[in-house]
Write the structure tokens for this entry.
Amino acid sequence: MEFLVYWNMPKKYSEERIIVPRFNEESGFYTTPERSKIMGKIRGKNTKPELAFRKALYQAGYRYRIDYKKLIGKPDIALKKYKTVIFIDGEYWHGHNWKERKPKVKTNREFWIAKIERNMQRDREVNIELERLGYRVFRFWENEVKKELQQCLQKVIEHLENYK
């Protein structure tokens, strides 16, 4: 039985790691109860775009694992048989159009800018490691999946059909 866990990031990084400060009052970060309530409702798993993509992939006849913990980065969808992983990333958390959005961060800038830039850096590190392990990595933005589900699905299916 194969049981490999690829949890650790590579020991050597191609770029200096971004350090994210702790988000707490002792560090000078404050938030309102209303904002805390809103942020608490944000899902990390089983978002509507993920569910829609998984349903479409299943209907296309492909079976997969979700939030696959045996691979680095815990891909949202993993098709082990095809050495293929799929991530469906939230625009805010993973830095979509970051050059435009970065100046618009108004509160707790020190934390949020470091947090999002570290997420982007981690995504790159995860992609490199998964590719090194022989996986094909697909990353889609949530809005891309919401608006163009069939095109996103078609990209993956074309790869899967051509898989040797």
User: Anything to note?
Assistant: The chain has a mean pLDDT of 85. The chain has one domain: 45-162.
